[in-house]
Amino acid sequence: MMKQALMIVDMQEAFFNHSQNFLYQSDLVVSNINGLIEQARQKDIPVIFIQHTTQDEQDEFFEGSEDWQLHKNLLRSPADKVIQKTRWDAFYQTELLDYLKANGIEQLIIAGAQTEFCLDTTIRAAYSLGFQNNILYKNTQSTISSAILKADEIIRHHEGIWNNRFLTIKEYGE
């Protein structure tokens, strides 16, 4: 069996503190991500939190701000790895790839936000970097509605593109 890591992307307070940023089905997504965290701990699978970070004081992800913090309802442990990123790609100029290689990780279980931005970019980058057996469980990732598409449409669209190409999508609980 491949050595796995659970990677949770950008589940930060900005998506829970402001109504215009509320993630679609946020309670379900947080609950399911916590379920993945509990399973990872039982199986001794490392948990990695990716945290979007900027130095722009006007930005919601300004380092150290309340909105920048990882969501308070996530089941975090001091043993979890936290990697800050400054771009949509969690691998871009971060220690993520080195950490995965150093720990012999071959397969990522990916969850988090936002579907069409950091999640999509990171999923595709992971595939291009050789992580070609990754898994995403339904209802463990989310986004907000745009001017063009509703959140559930964005999620369905991206999952349709990702599945059996960039990763395998499974029903939560499988």
TrEMBL record:
MF GO annotations: hydrolase activity
UniProt domain Isochorismatase-like: residue ranges: 5-135
Keyword Hydrolase recorded: yes
InterPro entries: Isochorismatase-like_dom, Isochorismatase-like_hydrls, Isochorismatase-like_sf
Record's signal peptide: none
Entry annotated with the keyword NAD: no
CDD domains for the chain: nicotinamidase_related
Family affiliation: Belongs to the isochorismatase family.
Full protein name: Nicotinamidase-related amidase
UniProt organism field: Fontibacillus panacisegetis
Lineage of origin: Bacteria, Bacillati, Bacillota, Bacilli, Bacillales
